[in-house]
Amino acid sequence: MVKKIKQWLLYARAVALPQSILPALAAICLAVAQPDFSILYALLATLGVAVAHLAFNLLDDYCDFHDNDTFVRRQMIEAGKPARGGKCEYLTSGLVSTKKLLTIIILLLLIACMIATIIAIKRGAAIFVLMAITAVVAFSYSAKPFQLNAKGGKELLTGIIFGPLLVSGVYYSACGTFTSNMWIISAIVGFSVLNIAYVHAVVDAETDKAMHRITIPILLKNRTLIAVFALIFAFLPVVITLIGCCTHILSWWYILIGLALPRTIALAYYMLTFGRKENEHISPKKWMGSMQYWSDIQAYHIEWFMIRWYLARNTMSLYLLLIMIASILTWIIQ
Description:
By secondary structure, the protein is mainly α. The chain is built from 15 helices and no strands.
């Protein structure tokens, strides 16, 4: 049983869970200062967010498999073009049937709905409203007839789901209210996650073109513009933090986010040099953060992709860790 759970966590890309759990924890740390704070409902909301995240990762694989995404990727790799292999391998290899995959997706979504219902009994109908909006956006992202991730909405929708929707949902679950500093933090989180999606879109642009998908980099076309937007998205969370501090919506403790600048600068460098260096040598450094399964990544020859994705994810993770510390310090010292 434990082995099967671990296998499904691998299929559902549990490695990406920091993208949802860390924003949830940041929302909890911010909510601690509110009078009606409840650790029980805060943790329940975090669990629900994680379960839903895994479900929608699997749904994304299901949709990609039916759209022949993996076939196109394989063709590109065989032609010597840059493409990320290994996606949906559990489906393409026949290890898991699409019927079984759908069963697991539905099971996970039912668990998330049950958790939301428990929270709504305490906090009211606002939880169902946030959950419904998130579900519509998430389904529209991957599933037909909309599939907005292929029509220019991938980066923006990802930022909205894991930023304002997730942070406000967990925050409200934890303390039963909305506040101005919560919306600033949700914007910081949203743009941090949007940055991850943008990095993904830039390095996966050739595959997206082959699949006739539209992303921000494909819309921009020009390499210089793509690089400019990479810089904007990389540094925007820092800029928003400074605005929040200068307007006194956030305390000056949040300036701690500046400690993440080395990773931000490294990410900016890797994005500016993407596609400009032939046979670039990829060598992760410890200060860049955790980069799991690197030997497997090398076996698939996707270091060029994962170094940038991991660095974007790890930069976001450090932002959120620093936001949590700043929130707790603000609560203790105020």
